[in-house]
Write a structure and sequence with these properties.
heterodimer, A: 545 residues, alpha+beta, 6-stranded mixed beta sheet, 17 helices, 36% helix, globular, B: 164 residues, alpha/beta, 8-stranded mixed beta sheet, 5 helices, 8 strands, 23% helix
């Protein structure tokens, strides 16, 4: 993985010193509330319902075990002994003290991490496919390009006060495990007509109040032009994006207002002027960064049957929580953070420490975070899978529900977030309770539930096969349900099934939707396939009829 | 006489905002963009040109200054709010694209915490917001010794990842 050089290390150290100084000036009254707000946001610090919340960047979801141990240390020393993995591969701490945050940032800098630009109206952490570099289906590894984008976007002086937040995702696989089509910019690695590596560029995707699938504004961008093209897009947005209305400030609104063709023309014209300037990447720089992500020294191993003679619980875990690695003899293991009774994405300090030990012992010393709020051990030898399962079970991290209904993604909701209208963690628990029968879940197959506590859609509800949105009705928590959304492969936005339902009725409503699916599905059809084939009406009738 | 930070040190500025009518008296005057463009359309004499500066508001189209970049001595960029971001792009276009070499001054809600990024975009002069400490702002100009991006700043970022 990428390692900081002197430049990177100096930059984060100087940033910590700057924020320490800003915090001191704020606490002494020298710096005003509004100015400090802008500054702390750009260091990942929100003021939330109960306490400040610190969001730490995990660039493209990749952590060394040294870094994961540090995240555990922060949870233990400065928080209530746990952290929360988000839908953008980051981790959040819900209970730090403001005056401790400079020390937390210094601790992070000591392991080549930071919280720079994890909030505020600036370029956020660049996310990627969590199976990057190990999945058999990718064109190229997106992580080197994410790292190049990370560096270009970090403290970019021109784009630190954009009209609104700005999110970039990169994927190298047609399966799009990074939800790239609902990002401000989605980059799809592909081979161009010349056989070289480059990108398909999508702009203007997003969720929130106005969910939109991104538009392709360039079919093929040679990789050496990556940064100049991004700079051109950002420059048009910074100049022309709306700043008068918070809800119309994202780039998707600009693309819509200008029209796709005019927007493309503006970007291309700007790019023509800068494409051969200082931002043009030479092969040496690209290869320098790519070398950090070179394939690991794999052993030459055969694929083996590890399930023969093993107990059903292991077999279930193997089927659902592991998947094919591009190298024979290895498997990719997903570590479930979706145990019944726990908030999706939550992990304790102790789990972080012991998972780090396990990753050192049985995987590559690296752990990945996923946008659906799980973790991944990317390099487990098949012969070690049983031992890995036993160890994960002992840590309560082996719930065999990956890809099933209870592998939900969920924002922190009303329990923590000051924006939320309704709780989401409680609903997750209700769903877990209602659907605890694993055989039923396995029979239902692949279903993605995504849940947000408000319109801001941090839980990506629009692109859930079943989406749940918390709304406030006269001070009560209600839930609007959509079906048919997806953010992988063929993206689509869910359709609202009808009036929102009461807090107690969410799991029951889902049960009715599932009844329709089970009754109507044809062979091998997933829930999403059935919704796409039969439409919303039969589901609507069952719930409201 | 207003106090500003210029090239990293405290300096005086004789420029005041005014109208084109005041230019005849020989005093240095800052005009709003529309008035400056009208003034330039009248083909003024070169000794008067040196006394006429222009102020850009966030929504102004900086492209309109392109023909005059070589002859305008001062461009003031207004930041009515701390979080206003368009002036950074205006500055970069003036410096990088139009080759503007004169004084580029940031005005408005200019706090110490902004001057580093502003300088990286090409600003060399700052009128601080009321109550802001000059010494803090001057120190902040040197906050970072490294940067990733090539920008229009010259001296503040000696090391860059891209573009040498």
């Amino acid at each position: 993985m990428y390692r900081y050089d002197t430049l990177d290390q100096t930059l984060v150290a100087e940033r910590v010193a700057q924020f320490r100084d800003q915090t001191r000036r704020f606490l002494s009254g020298e710096l005003g509330e509004e100015e400090f707000k802008q500054l702390r946001l750009r260091n990942g610090l929100y003021i939330q319902r109960h306490a400040p919340m610190l969001r730490v960047a995990i660039p493209y979801g990749l952590l060394s075990t040294r870094q994961l141990r540090m995240l555990g240390h922060l949870a233990r020393k400065y928080d209530k002994d746990y952290g929360h993995f988000t839908t953008r591969q980051n981790i959040q701490y819900n209970w730090p003290k403001l005056e401790d945050v400079p020390d937390m940032l210094a601790d992070l800098a000591s392991v080549e991490m930071h919280a720079i630009q994890t909030s505020g109206n600036c370029i956020r952490n660049t996310t990627a496919d969590h199976f990057a570099g190990i999945s058999p289906d990718e064109v190229d590894d997106p992580r080197p390009y994410c790292e190049i984008i990370r560096q270009w976007s970090t403290l970019h002086p021109e784009f630190n006060y954009l009209p609104r937040k700005f999110k970039i995702a990169v994927t190298g696989s047609p399966a799009d495990r990074a939800a790239s089509e609902v990002h401000d910019i989605g980059l799809h690695l592909k081979r161009g007509p010349d056989g070289q590596i480059g990108f398909e560029v999508l702009v203007g995707g997003g969720l929130g109040r106005t969910p939109i699938i991104g538009k392709v504004i360039r079919e093929y961008l040679p990789r050496e032009h990556l940064l100049s093209y991004l700079e051109a897009i950002l420059r048009i947005y910074n100049q022309e994006g709306r700043r008068d209305n918070l809800y119309k400030a994202r780039i998707k609104i600009l693309v819509k207002a200008k029209g796709e063709d005019d927007f493309r023309a503006a970007v291309e014209a700007e790019w023509e002027r800068i494409r051969d300037g200082a931002l043009k990447l030479d092969d040496a720089e690209i290869e320098r960064v790519r070398a950090f992500f070179a394939p690991l020294p794999y052993e030459s191993l055969p694929d083996i049957d590890v399930t023969e003679g093993r107990e059903p619980a292991f077999v279930a875990w193997y089927r659902h929580n592991t998947r094919q690695h591009k190298v024979p003899g290895y498997r990719i293991v997903t570590v479930s953070l979706k145990k019944h009774g726990e908030a999706p994405g939550d992990i304790t300090a102790e789990q972080m420490f012991r998972l780090s030990d396990l990753a050192d012992r049985l995987s590559s010393g690296q752990v990945r975070s996923t946008h659906d709020q799980n973790l991944v051990l990317g390099e487990v030898r098949q012969q070690d899978l049983y031992e890995c399962w036993q160890a994960l079970q002992a840590l309560d991290l082996a719930t065999p529900n990956i890809g099933t209904l209870t592998d939900m993604i969920c924002c922190p909701g009303l329990d923590f977030c000051s924006l939320a209208n309704a709780g989401s963690i409680g609903i997750a628990k209700q769903i877990h309770e209602r659907f605890s029968d694993l055989d039923y879940l396995y029979d239902l197959g692949h279903i993605e539930i995504k849940m947000s506590g408000c319109m801001n859609a941090c839980g990506h509800h629009h692109v859930g096969h079943i989406g749940i949105l918390g709304v406030d009705k006269h001070g009560e928590e209600w839930y609007q349900i959509t079906i048919g959304g997806s953010a992988s492969g063929i993206s689509s936005l869910g359709t609202v099934i009808g009036p929102s339902v009461g807090k107690e009725a969410v799991a029951e409503t889902i049960a009715k939707l599932l009844d329709v699916y089970v009754a109507q599905r044809q062979e091998e059809e997933t829930f999403l396939d059935t919704v796409r084939r039969v439409g919303v009406q039969p589901f609507r009738e069952r719930v409201y009829g | 006489m207003a106090e500003i930070i210029k090239n990293g040190a405290l300096a005086d500025s004789a420029w005041t905002n005014g109208t084109a009518a005041e230019l005849g008296a020989g005093a240095p005057v800052v005009l709003h963009l529309a008035e400056y463009l009208a003034f330039r359309a009248g083909s003024p004499a070169s000794d008067i040109l040196a006394h006429a500066a222009v102020q850009l508001e966030p929504a102004d189209d900086v492209q309109q200054l392109a023909p005059f970049a070589a002859t305008v001595p001062l461009v003031v960029v207004h930041f009515p709010e701390f979080k206003e971001g368009r002036g950074y792009t205006q500055a970069r276009l003036l410096r990088d694209r139009f080759g503007f070499k004169g004084e580029l001054r940031a005005r408005g809600q200019i706090r110490a915490d902004l001057v580093y990024h502003l300088a990286r975009c090409g600003f060399d002069a700052f009128e601080l917001a009321e109550g802001e400490k000059v010494a803090v702002a001057i120190a902040e100009l040197k906050r970072f010794s490294v940067a990733y991006q090539p920008c229009a700043d010259g001296s503040t970022a000696p090391r860059r990842r891209y573009g040498g």
